């Protein structure tokens, strides 16, 4: 263990010790925002009890009354094909640090329905997060419990698109096509996800090559359409689509599709957790792309010996094997990964939001 890792773990332990005396229990309830289920976790004084959803086992006070007071909100955007429960450890850490966490189940890109995986969900996700904020602002109970002028967003994997877009970054399908044309083999976990069979892979590769020799002005409009943040103008310099979003954290994010220029325009704090051995989203194309171009972004944790899904907890073995089977490369937990590094990263995310949102 190097000295830096030792001190990071010690800091996480000290934070737990000094905040433990005032930490709340973790309450959980379910809301419906339009057609979108939302899991809400929040501080409560009620005792927790075991609660299981399929293979996921948690300790929560189900439908308990929230603690008195007003709390900052963090909207948490899950990974592709995911749900609220693999991110429950992080949500609980945030709750104990004084936040309310809202976890929407993204339409068409969740564990029950993954029909919109990829660019279709990338386009939808930021609006779904804003829809959750709006719904909570109008809710008779929760509007009184939340500080909604400065909201946090956390995104894991595909949820990174949510976070970066709401921070003001922009992407195009052309960015994706050109990235995968140049780096398809090196970043095949991203570029060929869902196209493992030879025929599907060949078709995907052909689509990447289709724009190689054509000038941009003759390409179809759908390739050039800009998604995500706003294009700044002299009268509207803020690139955020919603100015309530005041801080963003990212964990192993999808990021290669975002333009360097738009990343450079981000002005709010962005904290990033990287997994050094991520083969699903190779760090030099994704996490490091953000850090290279975004001047307000900083690395919160660089998890050694960690694969993509080591960032999640709880992560039952049966689920891990099933999800790994859908990946082109990587996906299984790394035997050399120390879970204490993940716990320390969760603490640093909580501290990042505490510093930038207050709690």
From TrEMBL:
Sorted UniProt keywords: Hydrolase, Lipid degradation, Lipid metabolism, Signal
GO molecular function: hydrolase activity
Signal peptide (from-to): 1-24
Gene3D superfamilies the UniProt entry points to: alpha/beta hydrolase
Entry keyword Transmembrane: no
Transport keyword on record: no
InterPro entries (UniProt xref): AB_hydrolase_fold, UCP031982_abhydr
Domain of life of the native organism: Bacteria
Protein name as catalogued: Dienelactone hydrolase
Organism: Hydrogenophaga palleronii
Lineage: Bacteria, Pseudomonadati, Pseudomonadota, Betaproteobacteria, Burkholderiales
């Amino acid at each position: 263990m190097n000295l830096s890792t030792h001190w990071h773990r010690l800091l996480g332990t000290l934070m737990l010790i000094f905040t433990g005396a005032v930490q709340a229990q973790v309450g959980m309830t379910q809301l419906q925002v339009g057609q979108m289920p939302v899991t809400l976790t929040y501080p409560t004084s009620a005792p927790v009890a075991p609660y299981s959803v399929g293979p996921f086992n948690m300790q929560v006070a189900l439908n308990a009354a929230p603690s008195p007071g007003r709390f900052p909100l963090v909207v948490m955007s899950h990974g592709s094909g995911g749900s609220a429960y693999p991110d429950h450890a992080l949500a609980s850490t945030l709750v104990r640090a004084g936040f309310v966490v809202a976890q929407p189940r993204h339409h068409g890109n969740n564990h029950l329905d993954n029909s919109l995986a990829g660019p279709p969900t990338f386009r939808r996700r930021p609006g779904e997060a804003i829809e959750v904020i709006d719904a909570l602002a109008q809710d008779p109970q929760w509007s009184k419990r939340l500080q909604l002028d400065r909201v946090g967003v956390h995104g894991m994997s595909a949820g990174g698109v949510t976070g970066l877009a709401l921070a003001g970054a922009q992407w195009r399908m052309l960015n994706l096509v050109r990235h995968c044309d140049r780096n398809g083999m090196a970043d095949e976990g991203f570029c060929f996800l869902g196209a493992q069979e030879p025929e599907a892979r060949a078709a995907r590769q052909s689509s990447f090559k289709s724009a190689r020799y054509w000038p941009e002005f003759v390409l179809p409009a759908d390739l050039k359409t800009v998604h995500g943040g706003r294009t700044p103008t002299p009268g509207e310099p803020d690139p955020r689509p919603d100015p309530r979003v005041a801080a963003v954290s990212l964990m192993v994010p999808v990021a290669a599709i975002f333009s360097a220029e738009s990343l450079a325009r981000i002005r709010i704090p962005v904290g990033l957790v990287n997994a050094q051995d991520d083969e699903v989203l190779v760090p030099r194309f994704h996490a490091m792309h953000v850090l290279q171009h975004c001047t307000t972004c900083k690395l919160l944790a660089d998890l050694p010996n960690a694969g993509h899904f080591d960032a999640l907890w709880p992560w039952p073995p049966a689920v891990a094997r099933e999800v790994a089977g859908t990946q082109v490369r990587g996906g299984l937990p790394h035997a050399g990964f120390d879970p204490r590094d993940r716990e320390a990263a969760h603490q640093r995310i909580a501290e990042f939001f505490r510093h930038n949102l207050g709690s």
